[in-house]
Design brief:
The protein has 18 helices and two strands. It has helices spanning 6-19, 23-38, 44-56, 61-104, 108-136, 142-147, 149-165, 170-184, 187-192, 194-205, 212-225, 235-245, 251-263, 271-301, 307-311, 314-342, 346-361, 367-384; strands at 59-60, 228-229. A two-stranded parallel sheet has the order 1-2. Helix 5 crosses helix 13, helix 5 (108-136) packs antiparallel against helix 18 (367-384) and helix 17 runs antiparallel to helix 18. It is globular and about 60 Å long.
């Protein structure tokens, strides 16, 4: 029997969702510190299983880890309640920010704040890309390039395609996963599961022209189903669809949405609620958040009982490695696309560069602090110098 109540666990995740800043890696670290080391509610083995599943399956890592830890001792009910408790505080916060943004976004003071924040976000995402690349593929060294040359090829192809076309192609990512799995493991797995790959392809590429909320739901379901690792990995999926394909947001609104995710506690992916609110108010925010987190929930709860066998399957590991390399490449390409339109003068360039240097060189500096400083500096520059 668990040495804690479900109510205590849900309350913990509600507090973590309310006060937990720093992105997925930091949030996962808080869970280990609090639940494994301090409270001893979760065993080291259970935590490691949850961490492995959250990295293998599509979905925002920290949210999936929280859902799995809720499942560990309280099953589907525990997974459901901890997931809701973790996401709900940041959802409410970003809807409130969206309300303010919609009604006051045209005011000079708010434009000045986002002027600085938008530039800082470029620096933050660039550093996240760097860290995600070195963690997911390899360190930037000659020997590592030789050893992981195929993953680097997937990365470069996806990055260049995204930068040139200013859109992201899910098919490239799926192909990267299939090719890498085929090369690194037995082709029997590919033959036995070819139908599944085709179904994923159809799901990702089908064109929907329904009512706006239905269209939103389909779009965010696809985004949620193909996000691996860091919550920022959803950026390339969102950018092309929101700005270029459907024209739901302007380039500046999209950048502001990423900034909102940076200054909000809880999972970074909650930016989808802000985006949904800008497009279709509270119904849009609700649909976008539900559709994005539903795949994350299902990909955690459904394989949880069988995960020990799944985790040891080398074919699945290689498939995810290939997809991850292409996803990180797309994210890097998207940063370039956004930067071209967001770095508008020497001031924004300096804010972006300084943000990157601070995050790389000073350990105690985190993303929320960078955002607050950038907002203040942006306000000063926009008010007195630009």
């Amino acid at each position: 029997m668990a040495q804690y109540s479900l109510k205590e666990l849900v309350w913990y995740f509600f507090k973590l969702g309310s006060l937990g800043f720093g992105g997925p890696v930091a949030l996962a670290g808080y869970m280990h510190r609090d639940l494994v080391e301090k409270k001893a509610w979760i065993s080291e083995a259970e935590y490691k299983e949850g961490l492995a599943l959250s990295q293998l399956a599509p979905g925002p890592m920290a949210t999936q880890l929280g859902i799995y830890l809720g499942y560990a001792h309280y099953g589907v009910i525990g997974a459901t309640l901890t997931g809701i408790a973790f996401v709900l505080p940041s959802f409410v916060l970003v809807v409130c920010i969206g309300l303010t943004y919609r009604y006051f976004g045209g005011l000079p003071w708010m434009q000045a704040i986002f002027y600085g924040v938008g530039a800082a976000v470029i620096g933050i995402i660039a550093i996240s890309c760097y860290k995600l690349t070195t963690k997911s593929i390899s360190k930037i060294e000659i020997n590592a390039f030789k050893d992981k040359w195929l993953l680097w090829l997937f990365f470069i192809v996806s990055m260049v395609y995204t930068f040139i076309t200013q859109s992201e192609e899910v098919l490239i990512m799926l192909l990267a996963g299939v090719i890498y799995m085929f090369i690194k493991s037995s082709p029997n797995f590919l033959k036995n599961n070819a139908n599944n790959v085709v179904l994923l392809d159809l799901f990702a590429l089908t064109d929907w022209n329904s009512h706006q909320l239905v269209k939103l739901a389909i779009f965010f379901l696809k985004a949620g189903a193909f996000v691996f690792g860091s919550g920022l990995a959803i950026v390339p999926f969102l950018h092309g669809g929101l700005v270029h394909e459907n024209h739901w947001l302007t380039e500046q609104e999209f950048l502001d949405a990423v900034a909102v995710a940076m200054i909000s506690p809880g999972p970074v992916v909650i930016t989808v609620a802000f985006i949904g609110f800008l497009i279709a108010g509270i119904p849009g925010a609700t649909v976008a958040a539900f559709a994005t987190f539903l795949p994350c929930y299902l990909f955690t709860v459904l394989p949880a009982p069988y995960f020990k066998k799944i985790a040891s399957n080398t074919q699945i590991k290689y498939f995810v490695e290939g997809i991850t390399a292409a996803v990180v490449g797309a994210l890097t390409g998207a940063v370039g696309v956004i930067a071209l339109k967001s770095i508008v003068d020497i001031y924004t360039l300096l804010i972006a560069v300084i943000s990157m240097v601070l995050l790389l060189k000073i350990k105690w500096v985190n993303e929320p602090l960078i955002i607050v400083l950038a907002a203040f500096i942006g306000f000063i520059i926009k008010t007195w110098f630009v």
